[in-house]
Amino acid sequence: MKPIDLKNAFPSCPEHFEARIHSTIREMERLTMMKKHKIRLVVALSLALVILAGVALAASLRWGVLDFLTARDESGKPIGGDYLQPLIQPIDLVQKTASAKITVLDSLCDGTNLTLAWTCENQSDMDLYLFKEISIHGGHYMMETTRGELDGRSLAPGGMAHCAESWNISPIAPDGEDLHVTLELTLLRSKVETVSVDLPDAIASTMSEAEWAAYYDQYSEKNLGGKLFVENGMAILPISARNDERSNAQNFMDAGLMELADHIVMDVPIQVVMQEKSALIDGQPIEKQMDGYTIRVTRADLYPNATAIDLEYVFDNEEAMLALGKSRGGWLYHENGKDVLLLFIGCYAGTFQEVVSALPGENGSPASISAYALQGFSSNTKEIYQRTDGKWVVPATQRMSPLTFAPASITIVPSAFVWTSDTENDEVQYFEDAITLTFPNE
Amino acid sequence: MEKHEFESRVVACRDRYYRIAKAILVHEADCDDAMQEALVKAWMNLSRLRSQEYFETWLCRILINECKQLLRRHGRRPEAALSDTFPAQSPPDLGLWEALYQIDLPYRVPLLLHHAEKYSIKDIAGILQLPISTVKWRIHHGKALLARQLEKEATL
């Protein structure tokens, strides 16, 4: 086939599509304001983000937080994470009900990141559907999660769900803090006929147009007619039954599709193990003169399972700060044919974001920069301000977790999102400068 | 991520999101609805995004899921004339659109993601939750189907 630009099959984004984007985002603000309860929850979450959640259903796997945290190579062998093993606290807390057996296996909490692993075994003779809500309590610290990926996961009789979840908990829980996780599981069973389907593999390529249309039509809400639709092992809540004010379990019951089989609440004590070290000597900030600005690192802590870095970009004056953005092409975005500078309301995460690479440490396994980046991180920035000496400061923070190897050093490479008219995308542009933070060997 | 950045990053990729929604749903109003639902879900679940670097790809995945949800709800609507599905502005190559639309969805979407949106095979596998080998096959087969369709149109 001759080279064909598939973009030519489409016009540019029509006005109504873009208008819907803007109106939706405006509407989201209004909805958020209306839901005061939700606002409280969001504030709590911003202090303690749920950054990872998952479930595996392979009963043959040994399961625990280390299995959840670490990646695996092609042979299935865990990559890294060995040094975390001594820090993992076995729990082995078991609760049995008429229909299920819940076992909380182990936890890992280094004061900034908490991971918990548990299993749920269906001991009834019916399919069960799993829903969970979790809250974390301890001292000055309290967090509630929203509903997780588990919601609606089906569990056949005799089946076992292997579950784990990891939270970035801030502010830091002190060593020895009395930290508890409340694990609340709701198990439902279907009251109606269940229709199971695996998509998208169920869409055979040989289907005719008519077969294809009929295929989709049978799963439309209209034609399900009060049946429970289970797609790839997950119960699907009909659009008409969705109510964000209630739990998903309650929504399924209110819709008349499911009924309660069991409700289990477990209080799980968590032991905090702190082993942090800092790249700052005697707490003194590290400064490095870059091309047009200075980077000032005010915090560089390495925990077994996380890093915490606070830094500032310091400019001699406002013009220098703005000039850097212009000369690098960063901090700008394109709107209605014009370049717009983001700095007018502050520096947002992602518009002046650091890409942090890590070198393998003595205790860690070799890991590439890309593998490290895939570990995930969250980033927040505070508002830009002018110091009393007239210099302008752009603060930034980096919190990365969960780590599964101990880096000997971390290199921060400043970058910016840059609009490129060629691809009509924003791309990351890396600056030439870098600063390396080295952690002490202990 | 603040709302302003959320909005600017979505708008920066609006053409991409439109093409993806259009390729699956065809009808303009459906595309708008799917985008709206995807944005709401993305906003409410931002804390689950492990790395903001992948925001655009993540939103793409949510959008595709929403498009599939809409297909399930609406079924597949009959199209009298594909050219009528562009009420505002026709594409540069209407024949290419008509040929692309004749390809079954399981092949059309990976083909679009790879050849128009320049996603890697690995990224597409992540977005569509498919094995890499399946994605490779679908792109390969999708290209063949598109070539056959274009040849057919050329002979008409």
Give your account of this protein's structure.
The complex is a heterodimer of chains A (442) and B (156). Chain A is built from 8 helices and 28 strands. Chain A has helices at 15-34, 36-47, 65-69, 209-218, 221-224, 248-254, 318-328, 369-373, and strands at 50-56, 71-72, 78-79, 89-96, 100-109, 113-122, 128-138, 141-144, 153-155, 160-168, 179-190, 194-197, 228-231, 234-236, 258-270, 277-278, 286-289, 294-303, 306-315, 332-335, 338-341, 354-360, 377-380, 385-386, 392-400, 407-420, 425-430, 435-438. In chain A, the strands form 7 sheets. In chain A, strands 16, 17, 18, 19, 23, 24 and 25 form a 7-stranded antiparallel beta sheet that branches. In chain A, a hairpin with a 5-residue loop joins β24 (385-386) and β25 (392-400). Chain B has 156 residues and is mainly α. Helix content of chain B is 71%, strand content 0%. Chain B is built from 8 helices and no strands. Chain B is globular. Chain B starts with a helix and ends with a helix. Residues 76-80 of chain B have low confidence and may be disordered. At the A-B interface, α1, β1, α4, β20 and β23 of A face α1, α2, α3, α4 and α5 of B.
How would you describe this structure in keywords?
heterodimer; A: 442 residues; alpha+beta; seven-stranded antiparallel sheet; five-stranded antiparallel sheet; 28 strands; B: 156 residues; mainly alpha
